[in-house]
Amino acid sequence: MKASLRFTLSLAGTAVLAALLVLVSGAAAGQRHLTTCKGLEVTILDSLERNFVSPGDVKRYMEDYGDYIGQRIDSVNLCRIEDLLDGRSAIRKSEAYVTRDGMLHIDITQREPAVRFHTGGNGFYADESGFLFPLQSKFTARVPIVDGAVPVTVPKGFKGRPEDPKEQQWLEEVLSLIRYLGRDKTFKDAFSQITVLRGGELVLIPRTGQERFLFGQPRGFAEKFERIRTYYEAIAPSRDPGAYRKVDVRYDRQIICSK
């Protein structure tokens, strides 16, 4: 009897607790139904050298959403807001949520450029993942510049990834080169520009000196940079400054210098 009584009391306690939870949830839902949106607070989560996107930009983008200030907080479509903002090229991810005080919060993660391309009259960035997006009017990111016959064809204002598999592969190889340079203490800031020749071969242009390094396709980085290192350490010191204009490091175990 005692065990049965304890079981009955336990069930009764559980039922009471469940009822209380329902009442609290109902009260919270009712309060949410009555609360109106009082304002918008935007937070830029990352800390780039300078922001591509400001809180003021996000507030302007929200004009495309329509009215939300003064609207019931439970009528604000958070998914639609995130879709609207994620469609902006400089925004990698947005998160929208509301708090009990009636404030709409939007957290922004910016899309960080890894390299800037210039081809013909078009210019665009690529981030680490190979996502392409237009140059921004607010400021220019200090990232490596690749120009010339860039074998990636996209219209002005394009955002996304190239559809052509060959273009995707070449882009990923160039990004691998940029990552390699970023890890190498000697060459991290040694080159100001990379020019693309027809066929996708690269020419590396240093920040100082007149040499142009014929690098070939963007692969075999370790061996080619070792040849560039050998040029600077063993060949250039024995010649007058500017003695060579072209240094070809495309071929295995060869450094071909020409005036």
Structural topology:
Elements: H1 2-34, E1 39-44, H2 55-61, H3 78-86, E2 91-98, E3 103-110, E4 113-119, E5 122-127, E6 132-134, E7 145-148, H4 165-183, E8 191-196, E9 202-206, E10 212-216, H5 221-235, E11 246-248, E12 256-258
Parallel strand pairs: 1-3, 4-7, 7-8, 10-11
Antiparallel strand pairs: 2-3, 4-5, 5-6, 8-9, 9-10, 11-12
How do you describe this structure in short?
The chain is of the alpha/beta class and 259 residues long. It is built from 5 helices and 12 strands.
How would you explain this protein's 3D organization?
This protein is α/β, with parallel strands linked by helices and 259 residues long. It folds into two domains: 39-110, membrane protein fhac (Ubiquitin-like (UB roll), Roll), CATH 3.10.20; 113-258, Cell division protein FtsQ/DivIB (Rossmann fold, 3-Layer(aba) Sandwich), CATH 3.40.50. The chain contains five helices and twelve strands. It has a nine-stranded mixed beta sheet, covered by helices on one side. A three-stranded mixed beta sheet has the order 1-3-2, covered by helices on one side. Residues 18-30 have low confidence and may be disordered.
